[in-house]
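Give me the fold.
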Amino acid sequence: MPETDLGRQLAERFREVNGDHPMTDADDAYVSAQFVALEELCTAQGRDADAVRRLMLAGRLPLPGYLRSDGAEMVPADLFALADTSGGVELLEAWFTAHWADPDTGRAEWNAYVSGQYVCLRSVTPATIQRKDHLTRAITAAANEADAGSARGSGRLHALIDELDALEPAFTEYDRLRFGGPTSRDTCIDAMRARFPRP
């Protein structure tokens, strides 16, 4: 666990959001391969880790995606990319929510973003969030079309599945615990490929 008081507060907030689930060795290995420790990222970019933790606790930057078993706060390598693109942390929320025509939807997506739970995307941006939502709906609908299972229907379905596959990482068992069930990869990629094999 991080030694600073802010580190302890952040770990508590993380568990409030995600529940208190154990990380296995396999979970730790997956997370270490896909994410970077906050301290390491801040050192590499010349940022103060506690200042970043304050922004996370204030809901201005996303919480860590995972807490590794050793307590390391694991974050995406591009954690600061959207804030930099928007012109700074103080402008990030307005820039982010403006990508949705409906303000309530924009607010809900912002809350999901700063929760740190958008570990379902290799790169988290408004565009990839919107594309993932479109693809999961389209895949579910395509599986129920009259020509589902035909060569033509399977061709359309697998094009959607392949695009979603490119957007999403593999996930880990920890994710199934905190989300209370299968992930979108389980339901929209793996299960659909098994149900509708490629022609």
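The beta strands are 36-37, 66-67, 73-75.
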